[in-house]
């Protein structure tokens, strides 16, 4: 199975939508009399939490990429064949 990048925002969104579906199913079955505001709060809170998790995941991936790029440098001095070369 090919490996893929973990996306925490998508995981949080999926969990929030599963919670919404379970709440609606329990309300429709009569097992739970949920107020309508609960579903609005759960939906908005789930999307906000997913956005936050996406932002945190982006920052972590960016920091990890910068760290690996800096550790891969060979330590050679920059070349002097640019427009800023001394004559």
Automatic annotation (TrEMBL):
Claim: Transmembrane helix is one of the keywords in the record: yes
Membrane recorded as keyword: yes
Membrane-spanning parts: 38-58
Keyword tags: Membrane, Transmembrane, Transmembrane helix
Region (Disordered): 66-87
Ranges annotated as biased composition (Low complexity): 67-87
Protein name: Uncharacterized protein
Species for this entry: Streptomyces drozdowiczii
């Amino acid at each position: 199975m090919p490996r893929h990048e973990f996306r925490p925002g998508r995981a949080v969104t999926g969990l929030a939508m599963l919670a919404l579906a379970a709440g609606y199913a329990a309300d429709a079955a009569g097992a739970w009399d949920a107020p309508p505001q609960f579903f609005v709060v759960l939906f908005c809170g789930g999307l906000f939490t997913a956005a936050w998790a996406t932002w945190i995941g982006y920052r972590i991936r960016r920091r990890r990429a910068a760290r690996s790029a800096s550790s891969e440098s060979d330590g050679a001095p920059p070349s002097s064949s640019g427009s800023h070369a001394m004559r």
